[in-house]
Design brief:
The structure is a single chain. By secondary structure, this protein is an alpha/beta fold. Helices cover 37% and strands 21% of the residues. It has twelve helices and 14 strands. The strands form three sheets. It has a ten-stranded mixed β-sheet with strand order 5-6-4-3-7-1-8-13-2-14, sandwiched between helices. A two-stranded antiparallel ribbon has the order 9-12. Strands 10-11 form a two-stranded antiparallel sheet. A hairpin with a 2-residue loop joins strand 10 and strand 11. Helix 2 packs across helix 11. The radius of gyration is 21 Å and the shape is globular. Bound molecules: magnesium ion and zinc ion. Zinc ion binds next to helix 10.
């Protein structure tokens, strides 16, 4: 016993020294400013959804790779429970607004988005989603309309925006419009190569757009395949050609739709696809060395949890408590230069503030 105490103490000192050294090295590394930011939004992805990635994914979860974790409060300006429009406006423009608002304040004044700000400074920008590209979450990064339902108006904003790469669904809002405008032709006039059939044909122009469904993309369960990770790979390949840097937003749109449907198989399959996409972003960032990766959610959907099966604590079962969104805080995961800023508990608008702080010269 006499000897065991000093050995224990020594072990504790050694191991704590080891940990301290690791943390401080990581600290200096992540306090540099990033050249590029990848923001991944899992729509409706609360902590139980993230946990599902551990219990139902055959692969190790990419969420485990993040060294910095935070929590955000998601209420909108007028509602305790946000929708995706107010949630994404907070991320894209740093303001709290009303549910349904796309890039506008509570009095419907347009407010500049991160894409508008950084593209003026010469950065390339991109958007990838499994919804239509005019759906609330991606729309908030380039459009300014008082109501999220105004998909045809939102599509016009995309044509007029400085976005360099986009991939998702929503072809109808560009090609089958009430005003008969052909926005595909207008995008092509602006230097875009537009593909409406598949991701594999890589155009050589500087701007690329993929519109691969009339409205939302198919579910994973209906054969969407690797669209999200592959579109992310393409976006990174294209945007990283810019020496000035880039901002890329990627949305796992349908985790939310699985939550609304109270359909655990739908939710979990979309979550695993989003997790895989996080892996693509983290792999790129690791090789690149100048890229911050932030993965978060606009809100939780479904009041989803993992409860016991009957009385059995050895078995879990997905349980939903609402078919809408919930007010619970959602996690933020960060890795790379600047990631240290994303720890702690803060408002969703902080995501914007921190990203802009890091991209300012
Ligand atoms: Mg969304
Ligand atoms: Zn929703």
């Amino acid at each position: 016993m006499k000897f065991s105490i000093p050995i224990l103490v020594l072990c504790t000192i050694l191991s704590s020294c080891g940990v301290k050294q690791d943390v401080s090295m990581q600290g200096t590394e992540n306090k540099k400013k990033p050249k590029n930011i990848i923001l991944l939004i899992g729509d409706g992805t609360g902590l139980s959804q993230v946990s599902a990635s551990h219990f139902y994914n055959e692969e190790p979860s990419n969420y485990d790779k993040f060294p910095v974790i935070g929590l955000i409060k998601t209420s909108s300006a007028e509602e305790l429970i946000t929708d995706s429009a107010a949630g994404a406006t907070a991320f894209a423009s740093g303001i709290k607004t009303y549910n349904g608002a796309i890039g506008v304040t509570t009095d419907t004044t347009a407010v500049e988005t991160i894409i508008e700000q950084v593209s003026k400074r010469g950065l390339s920008t991109g958007l990838v989603a499994t919804s239509s590209i005019t759906h609330a979450t991606p729309a908030c990064f380039y459009a300014h309309v008082p109501q999220r339902k105004m998909a045809e108006e939102i599509a016009v904003f995309l044509v007029e925006s400085d976005v360099d790469f986009f991939a998702g669904g929503g072809l109808n809002y560009f090609a089958k419009r009430a005003d008969n405008r052909n926005l595909i032709a207008e995008l092509e006039e602006k230097g875009f190569a537009i593909d409406t059939s598949n991701l594999s044909s890589i155009p050589t122009t500087s701007k690329q757009g993929f519109l691969l469904a009339n409205d939302g993309m198919p579910k994973i369960l209906d054969g969407r395949g690797d669209f999200l990770p592959e579109a992310t790979r393409l976006a990174l390949e294209q945007l990283s050609k810019n020496e000035e840097g880039f901002f890329l937003m990627i949305e796992g749109s349908q985790v939310d739709w699985g939550g609304h449907a109270n359909d655990a198989d739908y939710l979990i399959s979309e979550l695993i696809d989003f997790d895989k996409t996080i892996g693509v972003a983290l792999d790129f960032a690791k090789t690149n060395g100048e890229t911050l990766v932030v993965a978060t959610a606009d809100h939780e959907t479904g009041g989803f949890t993992l409860g016991r099966e009957g009385d059995n604590y050895k078995k879990i079962k997905p349980i939903f408590s609402t078919n809408g969104h919930s007010a619970t805080m959602v996690p933020v995961f960060a890795e790379g230069p600047g990631s240290y800023l994303f720890g702690g508990v803060y408002e969703n608008t902080g995501i914007f503030t921190k990203m802009i702080q890091l991209l300012s010269k």
